[in-house]
Amino acid sequence: MITTNSNGQKAIISGGQPYEGQDKLQQLEKTAQANPNNEQDQIQAAIAAYVNGDLQKALDYYQKANKLNPKDPIPLNNMGNIYFRGMNKPKDALTYYKQATEVNSAYSYAWWNLGLCYEALGDKTSAKQAFETGLQKIPKTDVNYKNIQDALNLLEKSKS
Which fold, 1-69? Predict the structure, then answer.
């Protein structure tokens, strides 16, 4: 699925199709409201809100999910994604990515996003450090390991 952020930039949301449409959003919101103590229901409503372009509503649901399970890095990482990719506010995203890496140092997406966010801010030193630390913390079998390695290689090539 392709969506447009607040700056008119196109963003691809991988796997977003099952969440598309106001009917699906309303259905998932109804489930989240009926189960306010279920983290996964809050996350599902957040994804639907994001896919359907309601970034503030997505943030609200991710914040609820985070309160229900502060040890889960996914809501934190996804809040970072909303600020970084959805709102084009990488400085605001950093806090969430850092928190996600602190909550679970083996959560590869947080390290990858943290590095990309620093890179977008022009801080190549911090980006390199995030990628390198992530590669040390996550298993080589992680599906995202190669993406982080590739991002680090591209960053190092761009320095020379």
Answer: 1.25.40
